[in-house]
Protein 1
Amino acid sequence: MEDIEQTEKTFETKELTISMGPQHPATHGVLRLLLTLAGENVVKCTPYVGYLHRGIEKLGENRTYLAALPLTDRLDYISSMNNNVGYVNAVEKLFGIEAPERAKFIRTIVAEMGRISSHIIWLGTHVLDIGATTPFLYAFREREVIMDLFEMLCGARLTVSYPRIGGVRNDISQEFLDELYDFVLDFPSKMDDYETLVTENRIWKDRTVGIGVISAEEAINWGLTGGTLRGSGVDYDVRKYAPYDAYDKVEFDVPVGTNGDCYDRYLVRMEEMRQANRIIRQCIEKLPAGPVMADAPKFTLPPKDMVLKDMEHLIHQFILITKGPTVPEGEVYMGTEVPKGELGFYFVSDGSGRPYRMRVRAPSYVHASVLPRLCEGGMIADVIANIGTIDIVLGECDR
Amino acid sequence: MITVTINGKEIKLEKAVTVLEAARSAGIKIPTLCWHEQLEKYGGCRLCLVEVEKMPRLQTACTLMVADGMIIRTETDTIAEVRRGVLEFLLINHPLDCPYCDKAGECELQDLVEKYGLTKGRFREQKRKVPEALEDPVLVRNMERCIVCTRCVRMCEGVQGASAISVINRGGHSHIEPFSGGRFDCEYCGNCVSVCPVGAIMSRLHRHSYRPWQLGSETKTVCPYCGVGCTVVVQVRDDIIKRVVPKLGTVVNNGLLCSRGRFGYEFVGNKERLTTPLIRKNGLLEPSTWEEAIRLIASRLSEIKDKHGSNAIAGIASPRCTNEDNYVFQKFMRVAVGTNNIDSTARTGFAGAQGFIENIFGQGATGNIISGLANSDAVFVIGGDPTTINPILGLQIRACSRRGGNILTVGHMKGLRYYTPLELRPSVNTEIALLEGIVSALMKKKGPPGSHPVLEARLKDLNAQEADLPRICGIQGKDFSRFIDTLAEAATPSFVIGKDMIQSKGGSYGLFLVSAINYIVNGRIYLLSERANEQGLLDMGCAPDLFPGYRPITYPEFRKRYENAWKTGLPDKPGLTIFEMMEAAKAGALKCIYVMGENPVFNLPHTKDVEAGLKNLSFLVVQDIFLTETAKMADVVLPALSWAEKDGTFTNMERRIQLVKKAVHREGMEDWKILSEISSNMGVRMNYSDAEEIFGEICRVSPLHRDLNYEEIEKGDAIYPYKGEPLRGSTDEIHIEKSAGREERGKLYLRVERPLFHSGTLSRKAPALVNICPEAVARISPATAAALSLKDGDIVRASSKTGALELPVAVDEAIDDSAVMLSNNFQGKGAFSLMEYEIDPVTKAPCLDSNQIILEKVNR
Amino acid sequence: MRAGKFIQTIFFTEIIKGMALTLRTLFTPPVTRRYPKVKRPVKPGFRGLHALAKNEEGKMKCVGCGLCGAYCPSQCIYIYTSEGEDHKKIVDRYEIEVLRCVYCGFCVEACPFGAITLSEHYEYSDYSREPLYMTKDKLLANWDRYFAGEKGLRYFRDFWRPKAENFSAYEGQAMFDKVKARRKEQK
């Protein structure tokens, strides 16, 4: 402080306002931060969002419940599988139908795969932003395996659109299960590699320990969820508190941090990956036989082999696609634990085949709002660490 | 007060209604299929079954009337089971056609199966096979899809009154067929299409060219054909009108349409539409640019104005154009050109008759609510068949009969013949004598009401030969007395007056007599109007003697008002009527005529004279959407936008102002825009940005439209005077010119037929209407046919003093023995080309009923 | 602990560990590909460029019911039909704006006839929009190119969903005991 005072005495200084983003390699997409700097100190930080606004909520209101699913791929596009799962769970709750057991297990498997792939990206980019190139390359190596598995599963790597209302698009193949199991057995050793490279690294620790500290109480007040909240020591996970799909049938731990700084959030997410792997392994081992689509013909597309043979099936095919199902009136909120936090879908139904209102509670949007709290008073270099640690995706934030 | 309980909800009702209506009023949904709000109850589909306590079986909600204390349940397991069963049975024979069927997506059966039906069919048997009926040019029947709800049959019989179709065969083989076999022989109203819940009866016009969910936009607008002004919804895909459908719950037509309105929209996308301005160069019309055309018109108009004076220029406005177009047109003529020579084809009947009747009873006497006809207890029809001229008004007359009203006709009305009218069919040219007889008989029976001394004074010198009537008019005495009795007893009679009445010799006297009858029995008058905006055109001042809002130009104080509003001096002498224009053109006094959206060569009688007149002009401008007969003679032709391509307002015969909205986009300028461009080039600036702004000006200058705006009109009930000045009362003077009676028996007279499927020259550009009614035919009575040894389809040469035509004949029982009916719709085959006329001195309308015609068989 | 930390600090143990890992990795086979030269094989059922299926007679299967266009979340399918000479419905234009397509494969699910497919072809970037606007002819040619022979039949068997088997337990479902058996075999 003395130094600053000294400098102020000798030099005439003034605050500098700079715009970081929306095109900046370290802002994770089109986030723009308006930073007011006094030297290297951040005096004020204002996030500007909306550069990636596509009106997904409004688009969803103009499509049938069935056809709006691919829109959710484009929320948090690096964990589209989790968004799909969240969406179909919410819609199923509204329709009052339930997916068959096997479909629930498959959804749990793919959702945890999505979690691993999302966390791997977070790890790679977060570390890269701070200056370590190597873990990024290692991380993407494993992500590629998951992407390939997704491709094998449903024909797409990123925007999967795999789950369906009432189940999943198609059953998993034996080949997929084999390869996935191999990956699951192999993955902990890869985790060890990442930890070798990062966890104890002194530069990494210098850049993250004690940076962006937020207390448990404050984190709750800011509405933080997911790893960002758990880093502050709050034991809250939707998978535990309101289990959906097969989460109540598997064992897993919810890691929590203590200090609420960047380093703790890092540790929490690393442990989450190991836990996700554990969940996948359990699901594979417990995977039951059975249908993968619910027997709810008023809400799910009829089997293709019957459509041109039976009038009732043909009519349902037509109505479900052009007008959507007849939905009970009312409203529904359903939160699911996606890699970023709690993703909530809120529907208001007027009885027609399209939602009257579709609202997405996007964790990235909530997390972006905490940035000023984390950055103000810190150094400009730590802004990068803070952006990385809250793990936001602007596709979801702007919607 | 009746109290019923439906699903535990107590509902209090003022009067006994059906259970279905009671449930709907309480917001409880009961599925229906055969029920339709416009139709008679039927109770055939069994989908609306409900449980009523203390009744042993399920009851149909659509037919069961509520009784006090009824306890009704609409959603129980039994009912759901029954509904599933009903729908399953309906689908047994329903073909797997959804991918091909144009109805899929708006099919009521699909919706019901999705909501109430099974999800899996249990029947695997063969389905019935009925070939698609494609014989008809406009309607296609696919009876495999029919579920025999009989909505179409009930519509055809009970609402439209055409009774053209019925259910044939029994059981699983029953289906709908027209009595005429494959091809329909009906009014082609297409209302069966709009009530069909499945794709069993559909329009062929847009067959297989879209799916309901692909329709891009829907525009609620007004039908462009007749003066009724039905609300239609124009559905568009990719700037092509796919179909025009009615809308339930609209004030004027409430879900009904006629053949023209429903199938006549294709002229909008016709390939023959004009696209660029044409300028006559070296005797030929050659494509040109807007700029060149507008500059040429402006300079030529200014030149003629300078050389020969303003009154050497005249303008013909259009009853097909919007109020805004017509307002700008008359303003252009009066301000930029400086003449009152503005008229339109409304002069051939509507304008004069309206003026005449308004002089007797006060302004607005002819503008009565169309749906009110159905509530009359007697409807007196004279001078034309309302069911073909204004079909939706005709339906109200039919509805009146169905509700127990009496239909009284003078002359034979084919479209009303099933409604057992009291018909007086006077022999040729004796209508006046008959009307005189009716007046005097009614006066004797009811006595003068005493509220209109001027009219009663006029009635004093009436010398009706009542006793001789049967002999003079060739009618039965007892028919006449029944006619008089019914009319005298009617409490709420209505009078429907057609153009034939006005266009007959002594038309104004005839009109006076009808007005007198109306006065004695205290009725309401409806004046049939053939064009969409005939009323609005007059409101806008497109008349040689009236300013907008019917302000006579000869009154200096009114003129002053308009001079102030338009900030210029205005001519004070009444201008020429359309017929005087033709005379003046022939005589050389008129140098230039500006025609907007009209076809005088074809739409005015005595074609040769009109042609000679127009040829004699030094400059003729025609603004139209097609290259009409008149446009072919023009020096400059300007392409205009049609009804579906511009915004504006139409005023229907009720004086109801309705919005016309742009449904499709097309390059070009609205009529008002073209006029304001020319006006600006002539040094009189008219800067209107859109139609709404023009309407704003209309509302400022016209006392009738005061305080109106588009938002008010959008609400629906904008019948003027809305909040404006009260309508003008009657005048103290009634001009009558009696004409000398004529008695020439044994000859044939040419009469203008006003067919249902055509309307002027617009409908002949609509392929569907041309398919229904493809060519001009001369209609003759069986007696005439026998006398000339003609049969259906024979080609005859019809000649009159002014010309001759060769065309086929059709023998029709509905035609009088002395008449030959010929329509004025088909190119080169118009009745007007064979007609001469003389002008009625009072209404200034042409008298067309004394054109004798000779038919000779042509042997080929 | 403090001693360990001290040793770590002065001997850079954690850095050396990391260095050792990277050195070890240097001798493992590369996971990357030299893409344009070495093509990446796609998995069966990949959702790539569209094709319009033909039946055994070589005619287009599509009847123009328009369900694909109605279901399409990005609304990029345009279908224009008209009445043919024999009064049947004919498809005049079937167009897909590939640049707007999101490759969700919902059109395949919507089609009652199995007329629209997604091929495994994914290399079709271009410099202008026009080649990426798929017309009926281009889409039919895609079928011949990417679904020739058995491949087309297999596509409908495996990827045209949902099938009746999705609503039931069927033989040959992927199960863990088979995974176990395989691993035992490999050992």
Protein 2
Amino acid sequence: MLGILGMVVWLGCIICLIMVVIKMFQDAGPLHGILGIICGLYAFIWGWINSDRLGLRNIMLIWTLLIVVSIVLGYLNGFSYSLGTPAVR
Amino acid sequence: MTRAVLFKPVLSTILRDRRLSSIICGAALLQLLLTLIGVPGWTCPVFHTFGIPCPGCGMTRATVFLFRGNLKEAMTLHAFAPLFLVALMLIGFATLGPRPRIERMIARTEALERYTGITTLLLGGLIVYWLARLLLLQTAFVRLIQG
């Protein structure tokens, strides 16, 4: 159950990241967009700083909530719920 | 892409925005501190969703190794960690340094970015480095990132 919830939370996080990165490409240019892909934390900070100006407030609130849930789930489940790990072929 | 796009300053834009640079500096220091004491901080959504490390994965731990003076481990984990540390130091100085010196530093950084396109080169280099590790050393790369 926690595993499925974890997957949903991470999928939500990645959707929020993609939406913010798209805004970064449009508003700040391609280099900032690439930086947002490379460093999710930068995209998160940039999103909050520009949330009012670009109408990202709801997305950022959802993303923040999902991060809090992911941290709680991580502590409950020992960070073992993520979709990808391990992905070694 | 035109020259204007490729040579557009990125770091100096961040340095010029004192609010952005102070939040980045605080968040990065918090992330490094949490990693140093073994508490999970910011986790990469790309890695957790797809199981594929993003180009920045491993950077925090590599920087922690740098702080500990272990250059070899740091370079094994992420070769761009020293550059990340330099950028972080610049951002830290832009947050806390005296105003006239900050203005001079930002002007120099902007000129460097505009004339050399160093930001584009480094971001491109980071993508190539990530692709090389992902395509040629995938198993080792994922294990390395997983710790």
